Each structure stands twice: as C-alpha cells, then as structure tokens.
Amino acid sequence: MRNMTRRGAVSLLAVAALSIPITGCSSNGGSGSQAPAADNSADSNGAANEAAATTRTVTTDKGDVEIPVNPTTIVSDYYLGELLAVNVKPVIASPYALNNPFLAGMCDGIEPMNVTSAETSLEMIAAAHPDLIITITEADVDKYSAIAPTVFIQDGTRTDEELFLYIADLVGRKEEAQAYANEFNDNVAAVRDEMRTIVGDRTVSILEVWPQEIYTMGSHFARGGSILYDMWGLKAPEPIQTAMVDGDEAYEVISLEAMPQYAGDFILHGVLDGTDSAFVDDSTLWANLPAVKEGRVLQYEQVAFMHRDPITLKNQLQIFIDFFRAHAE
User: Fold this and answer.
1) CA angle at 207 for the pair 205 and 209, rounded to the nearest 5°
2) pLDDT value at position 8?
3) What is each CA distance from 229 to 54, 182, 218, 235, 319, in whole angstroms?
4) Of residues 316 and 51, which shows the higher confidence score?
5) Residues of 58-81 as b/e, b for ≥16 C-beta within 10 angstroms?
6) What percent of the chain has pLDDT over 90?
7) pTM given for the model
8) Least confident piece of the model among 39-48, 174-183, 301-310
9) Phi and psi angles of residue 56, each rounded to the nearest 5 degrees, phi first
10) 9 CB neighbour count, 10 Å cutoff
11) What is the signed CA dihedral for 177, 181, 184, 185, rounded to 10 degrees?
C-alpha cells in the first residue's frame, strides 16, 4: 500500500526548463564637474520614491520578493481559480488548470502554457513580458525569476482559504477574496447541522479509480474533502480518518481486496479520465458494498474535483448538498 504526505502529493504540469539568460543594463551615472551634487541627490531620491510607489516586498516560501503593487500581466503555472475568483485573468495558465470544467466560460483570452518542452514553456512566458509569475514548482523559481518577479507557493502549507487570500493579496484583491471566502464559509455553516443529521454516525469516503489502482483521500488532497471532513466534521472509515483526516497523509493507494475497509456508508467515486474502471465496477467486492447496494454513491468528474480553488469548492458544496439531501430519511 502506497501513501504520500500532502506536501509530496501535488501533480504538476509546470515543466522543468533551462535558465533563460538575462542581460542587464548598466547605468553609468558618472557626475561631471558641472553637475551640482544637490541635483543628483534629488534625482536619486525621486527615482527611489517612484519605485517605492509602484513596487512592494512580499514574503514568499522562498524568501522576500519585490513585486508590482498592481501587476497587470500575470503568468501562473498552477493556480488559476484563485485568480478568477477575484476577477483577475492571467495571460498564461497551466493546461492542467484550464481543463477544470468548473472554470468553463471564465477563461477566454487565457493562453494555455506550451508544455511541449522546457524551452517552449520558457520562451512563451518570456514573450508575454509578464510583470508577475506565480509558481508551485520550486525547481523553476530561478528560471522564472530571470524573466519577471516570481512568487513560489509551496503546496500543502496553507489551508484552502489561506492560499486563496495569499494569492489574492499578490494581485491587490485581498478584500474581494475575504468577502468571497466569508460568503462561502457562511453557506457551508448554514447546512452543516443538516448534513450531519442526514449522515448521522455513518461514514463518508472518497475512492478514485486509476489504471489498476484505487486511491483513497481524506481532507488534504482536494476532491472536496476539506468541506466534508474539516468544515462539516463528517467521519471517514477508520483507516482514512486516522491517516488522511486526523493525520497528514494526502492519499493511499489500496488494492481491490482492501477496498471494503476504506469504503464508507456514502462513497464519492471518481475515475481518472481515460481509465477503464471495470476491474472495480464489475467486481463482486464493489457490488456488495452497502453504499453501492443502497445507491449512496456520488459519481464525480475527476478532472473537476482534483482542484481546490474557491470556484471549484463553491460548486462542490452545492453538489454535496444535493447528494446528501437526496438521501435524507
């Protein structure tokens, strides 16, 4: 059985690439005998004040970085829904993020990052002349920083809301993000008692089918687990609850034979795009699970549920509400 902590679990399409050389401009400001010293000082102070007014220093997961106060040309190799939720469109985003069905209709004008090779990715980014790059890939920070100010965000170190507010602050939209988050939290809390009453002392599990593998997740690996387990306090089967809700593991890969131990009274069931799930769906073990027998299975679209941005979470919340209400007694 394989497992992974949340920090090691992230799936990336941001590619490793060779550094792009950058040529700097050397300013030779030698003062002539006719130039008064006071004038030079005034020019220097004016330039410093102008720079201070247009840039600021932010703390990142790889040190302090000076970024524009109001970035206008943004590239993100992973995060997208966090930006769209506060009405900010990057010029380039990861194809991985752009494929999220919950973001359909919001991505017009955003170019998918060319991931054909490391070189094509960097060439595309450089050609866009961004003034801010947001990345989840530590290995790419130096390469990106040669192009524009780059903020590295380490996966798994913030809650969904903390991550949203952090990204929104980078683009000057923290107040809008806080309002969005407050509304979401209110909506989650408004139905919490109702959901807990419907589920009662029964358990909820997330089972996802990959080629000849079954993944189980808790509250640290998207799929809406943070809503189910952290915000509503629903319980998972013991192996999931201990390791992936109360513990720090992001997921476990289990065998078909072990599946009944991880299957809850309610099951969220996803299938990786292009995967033949017959080895699970046509098995006697699956057919005999109480949740399957009694129709308490929520089939979710894996390509959508694999994200954890605020727009995805908002949509997941409504799907969960409708699912559990359909099983109210």
Assistant:
1) 175
2) 47
3) 42, 19, 8, 6, 15
4) 316
5) eebebeebebbeebeebbbbbbbb
6) 81
7) 0.84
8) 39-48
9) -150, 160
10) 17
11) -170
